[in-house]
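agent> fetching stored inputs for the manganese (II) ion docking request
agent> found them:
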Amino acid sequence: MEYALTQEAPDQLATECLIVAIHENRGLSEAATALDRLLGGEIAAIVQRGDIEGKPGQTLPLLRAVGRAERVLLVGMGVAGACKPAQYKEAVTRAAQAASELHVKTMASFLPMIEVKDRSPAWALEQAVVATEDALYRFDRLKTRANARPLPQSCQFGTAGALGSDANEALSAGRAIARAITLAKDLANLPGNMCTPSYLAEQAQALGARGGLEVNVIEEAEMQTLGMGALLAVARGTHEAAKLIVLQYRGNGSAPPLALVGKGVTFDSGGISLKPPANMDEMKFDMCGAATVLAVIQAAAEMKLPLNLVGIIPTTENLPGGSAIKPGDIVTSLSGQTIEILNTDAEGRLILCDALTYAERFKPAAVIDIATLTGACVIALGGQAGGLLGNDETLTRELEQAGQTAADRVWPLPLWEEYQKQLDSNFADMANIGGREAGTITAACFLSRFADKYPWAHLDIAGIAYKGGKEKGATGRPIPLLVEFLRRRAKPA
Ligand code: BES
Ligand code: MN
Ligand code: ZN
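agent> prediction call returned; pasting tokens
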């Protein structure tokens, strides 16, 4: 979809679908008022009758020409001046869906003119692009019959006059974030037989070529030489070759980089500790951390952020092949610490721990790992917030606040010393599981033992990276959070 700004007034604009806001206190937005004048009070009458109450996300199409627009879509935006960021996002999403149901090819939206509580007009414009692209996303490339309903091709936005030249910047940022989300969704929605570790490595190389990044792919033989016994242990159960993908974006000379480490299990069967069959297909999404890292680096490069980034992606399948690791097996990680594998389904931490040790060589300013790591996190926080843990309060606060601003939230869990003893093993330095209690925390405790050389944060995205059921598919979270975090790091307050 093409996004552009328009200076045209709503009652002057030629489009197939004009989108304007209605407020809950029976008020018309500025744009709706302009159209109402053209219609001799018809919109005010519709609102007065209560055909649309103005609740955030309500939509009502007017299937008639108004000015130079072929039709109008009224969209509820809540009480004027009190629209919350999440409500705004929801309203933009619903508007885009409703417009696409009207089969239009072009649309023009004046929703970004609305005042959003605690947010700038630039935020509203950026979010309008991100939420519209998100709403219109489809993954249908593997369907052989073309979808009868083509998607809208272009969207113009009318913005608050005060934005001035910042509007172009907000639009480009919105596009970069939207494209990143689409990239991550495409990678994650692709099934496990297509999105293999080799495929991810190829995609990383392609991204490097597009964006002028340095990309290195470490193969199993080299992992062996380096001593990545934990990552290699998981890879034993499958014929697919594991990869360690390393990407570098340089936007700030020789400054210490931020490192992003993404879990790239392209299918998690559980291994010998096999998962139950129900919904096991969703374990193709177990590489969403990897997809997030690729996408965020793409966005940072497109936005030319003045900072240095390293992306580290350990990627493998977790299958129960004849050579697979077994419960009780003990392996030596890259750090030299030994691990007793009591459950082969706790594989994410095994591949991540070697990647975290590998990150040390970049002398990073901070390391953030992103992983669909525990079912326990889905139980604790559901689909609203990701889990946030780490060894540095400044870093975890920054991430929490960036998520707040981006409407892509994470929520802290404690990483107290007392939890560490759940990982005690009789036979090795540690076990790879910590029992039923506090599963998200003990997983992070495990990782913390490999992340003690730098400020580190862990995002458990098992509950937010994808949806199941009727809406099954990747969400692109937590890309908005991470881009916001990077932007703040790029220009310190
Ligand atoms: N990939 C899963 C975590 C997961 C579960 C993500 C559900 C999304 C939805 C991870 O590898 C895993 O299997 N974790 C185990 C850990 C347990 C064996 C300690 C889990 O959460 O059950
Ligand atoms: Mn698992
Ligand atoms: Zn997993």
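agent> quick read of the result: The pocket of zinc ion (ligand 3) is lined by residues 265, 268, 286, 347-348 (CB under 6 Å).
agent> awaiting further instructions
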